[in-house]
Amino acid sequence: MKLPQPLLAGRLLRRYQRFFAEVELEDGRVVTAHTPNTGSMQQCAVAGHRVLLSPSRNPARKLAYTWELVEVNGHWVDVNTQRANRVVEEALRTGQIGTFAGGTVRPEFPWGASRFDFLVERQAERTLLEVKNVTLCCADAVACFPDAVTERGQKHLRELLQAKGEGWRTAVLFLVQRGEAEAFTPADAIDPEYGRLLRAAVAGGVEALACRTLVTPAEVTIDRELALIL
Asked: I want to staple 65 with a disulfide (CB 3.0 to 4.6 A). Which of 43, 53, 90, 93 is the partner?
């Protein structure tokens, strides 16, 4: 998926009040950028890290910049969680995720009292798919989720398991934004209940897969699938 252009380079000074980031641009100006990420952003929201911002084309917008990427351990990381589903949707529609290749894609599919990120239909098979954006590494080359306790994420796993019991194919896809990652595992030290539920869901037939992205200042695309450590 193409990123907005142009992107302006700078250094992160601080992230505060969740949705604000103070950044010193290369020309010395200090600006406040919108942070489209509700997570803790451990390892990403670190003062001194290189960042890339997109300028807004809307003169009436309160904040003129949006924080898009941050450099961590020599790799660009996409911190804009609003883009994760669009990256996955593009990959689904172009057949880049093999297990779902050839299917039709419907975003934001209502199920019961909830809504899953995607319904993927292929012949007689219907798959409920939930996507989780991953920006944290818990060990060298091992990405993990979540970066904070997520009751919403726990609820999604329970619902995927319930839907599986009702005859649906169900899956959770962890979109790993860390270029050094070679594997994925649940972040048990941060949210042990999520880890327990993920293992229970997989044992009950819910599919889990982790796909690493390739992030550049120009675009974010699916790179390859990673090993799961459960």
From this structure: 53
Rg (CA), the chain: 18
The CATH number of the domain holding residue 65 is: 2.40.50.580
- What is the span of the domain harbouring residue 182? 81-228
**Same domain assignment for residues 34 and 148:** no
Q: Look at the pTM and tell me if it is higher than 0.90.
A: yes
DSSP string, 148-188: S--HHHHHHHHHHHHHHHTT-EEEEEEEE--TT--EEEE-T
Q: What is the pLDDT of residues 101-160, one digit of tens each?
A: 999 999 999 998 889 999 999 988 999 999 999 999 999 999 999 999 999 999 999 999
The answer to whether residues 136 and 109 belong to one domain is yes
